[in-house]
Amino acid sequence: MISSVSILGVPFSITYHDALSDVDSGGQIPLRGQIDLQTSSIRLHKGNNLPAMFSIIVHECIHALARELELGFQDCEEDVTRVARGITALLLDNKLVDLEAIFRKETGEYPDEVDL
Ligand SMILES: [Zn+2]
After folding, report:
1. In which band, very low, low, confident or very high, does the pLDDT at 110 lie, cut at 50, 70 and 90?
2. String of b and e for 46-56 (b: at least 16 CB within 10 Å)?
3. How far does the centroid of ligand 1 lie from the alpha carbon of residue 89, in Å?
């Protein structure tokens, strides 16, 4: 699985967690994904199928993009979710990303980084 993404040139590490409660860095709230803009890191629940995991990564990246591009909605979950849903559908519906390559498990050959 990918271990990092580059968001506007800034590398964000990705870590995968078994329990939803472990995704929350505070260990309090069950989450499927969380981004920490201060430490440039993304925490992801690994119990999702590939499209869902990809969608969550896109969602977390939108938080960072919204902040860096000063779009004004980086803290609005509803807006981030809508933009992420649209971008994810665009990429998946048109087969512009190869989920198997991003999350390849069989060979252990995981790409280190993907640009979104
Ligand atoms: Zn969010």
Report:
1. very low
2. eeeeeeebbbb
3. 17
113 is a domain residue: no
Interval 42-65: pLDDT, tens: 999 988 788 889 999 999 999 999
Ligand 1 (single-atom ion) residues, CB below 5 Å: 77, 80
- Tell me the backbone φ, ψ of residue 95, rounded to 5 degrees: 50, 45
CA of 53 to the centre of ligand 1 (A): 13
CA of 12 to the centre of ligand 1 (A): 15
89 is a domain residue: yes
Distance 107 CA to ligand 1 centre (A): 31
Structure tokens at 90: 């665009």
In this structure, what CATH number is given to the domain that contains residue 33?
1.10.10
**Domain of 31?**
4-98
Residue 15 lies in a domain: yes
Total structural domains within the chain: 1
Residue pair 104/2 in contact (Cβ under 8 Å)? The answer is no
